[in-house]
């Protein structure tokens, strides 16, 4: 909690995703080269521990903060319910399918996770706003700014400045 408040939600989330991505690549390399170098088992073990650490720093807890802060009081319970359902449904799918995917892909099974983590990182980079220290209205304004054309946004800023004066 202290780290989240100090570093910010978005930066921790993206750092966690990038750490998990690098760990997934390291696991893939370790598994591919395991038959040639016995010490690659240690690389794979360290990569697994790092994967879990980065998950616990970013993508584990941060989405719950962000979902709670992206929605106003009215729709927040429904948004958290949908997020929880998606989280547990994806956990279930991964848990049920991992062995079959591992049998199919062999040592490259974690390359699939690396590719998905890259997509998640890019999505977070372009679409997820920083919510640390911002009210719901400020966060909603960030989304509105992205949707409005530049001319309209300039007119709104001019109007806001004239109201403050």
UniProtKB/TrEMBL annotation:
The chain crosses the membrane at residues 12-33, 39-57, 78-102, 108-126. Keywords: Membrane, Transmembrane, Transmembrane helix. Pfam families: Sugar_tr. Residues 1-132 form the Major facilitator superfamily (MFS) profile domain. One of its GO terms (molecular function) is D-glucose transmembrane transporter activity. It is a multi-pass membrane protein. This is GTR2 protein. It comes from Psilopogon haemacephalus (coppersmith barbet). The gene is Slc2a2.
